[in-house]
Amino acid sequence: xxxxxxxxxxxxxxxxxxRAGSEAETKAQxxxxxxxxxxxxxxxxxxxxxxxxxxxASLKIFCVGFYLALVLPKFSMEAALFVGLLNGFLFLFHFxxxxxxxxxxxxxxxxxNVIGNIEPSETAKTxxxxxxHMDSTPEFIWWYWLKDWGVRLMVLGGVSFAILPVxxxxxxxxxxxxxxxxxxxxxxxxxxFSLTFxxxxxxxxxxGAQDNLSGVAVAHAVAKTLSVDKLKNTRVRFISFGxxxxxxxxxxxxxxxxKRELENGNAFLVNLDGILDIEQMHxxxxxxxxxxxxxxxxxxxxxxxxERQGLEKKLGTIxxxxxxxxxxSRYDIPAVSIVGLPMDKLHPTYHTxxxxxxxxxxxxxxxxxxxxVDFAKxxxxxx
Length: 383
Prior knowledge:
Blueprint: H1 4-15, H2 23-36, E1 42-50, H3 54-71, H4 77-96, E2 109-118, E3 126-133, E4 138-140, H5 141-146, H6 148-174, H7 182-190, H8 195-198, E5 201-205, H9 209-228, E6 234-241, H10 249-264, E7 267-273, E8 281-287, E9 292-293, H11 296-308, E10 315-318, H12 325-330, E11 335-340, H13 362-382
Parallel strand pairs: 3-6, 3-7, 7-11, 8-10
Antiparallel strand pairs: 1-2, 2-6, 4-5, 8-9, 8-11
């Protein structure tokens, strides 16, 4: 496994798709932990249990709630308003904003994080964490078959969950008749869009070469390089998170467990996710769903490293969804993500069966290793 590309290829060939909490994810994490023992000073596997199916299984609840709210005005406007508001509120906070309020309804499943540390040659004054996530996702079938239109239909479905109760509330206050009104018929006509949530996943689990073995492999190569060419006052930490695709479960569990240690160790996270296209490599400033802004010091230092390595400094915003960096920023641990995907449209490989080893460019992975090693060395000089 002498290159990031070969590591990705080997894990896919050996373990296949790695759904969160599956045996394949567990075995891949155990394998990776054995690999990093050859260059890390200490390695740990940290199991955690969480409601790994709650985020996407809850979408069926929201779809049923939406249709119930559509029908209820015939019988009781008060009941329709209550159901609509509750459904929209829970959809926004549980699903969109990752507050996981409905997790208690679902069983807990075990996953695990893998952590390896490389101590500096002298006293550690700061810690740089390079991380990616091991798990891959069930295929988003509408994104595969309909591409950007699949995303648009899902967005429209989600907007309907939020707008319907607003229309009901205004109607209730001013005394409008809702049942079979023109706006009500519009909601009925567009209601099939919500079925893109009900049937979001197909039966296939994707290989996850770019999302996100690419990030794991680049982080692995950076840590391995810096284990030989040690930093002076910066501890290097490699993490392979489990269960990112189910709502950032692995990174959330890690930060909750280690928050004080991260603060005391002056830790900074550089998360790598979807290291696919060198022309679309973005340093992520914000993640809209969670309302998180990432650390300006990291953004600036990484931008400088990009430019030193002859790459354009591109800043980006995650419009929907989230990365593991958001778990850190949410708890005030400095973090940033690097994502090599377009920010304004769906890439064909994202969460689809096309996310195979064939979509990766070995040169892109190697280039990002060079950028991050450069960044780490400069960081060590100035911190």
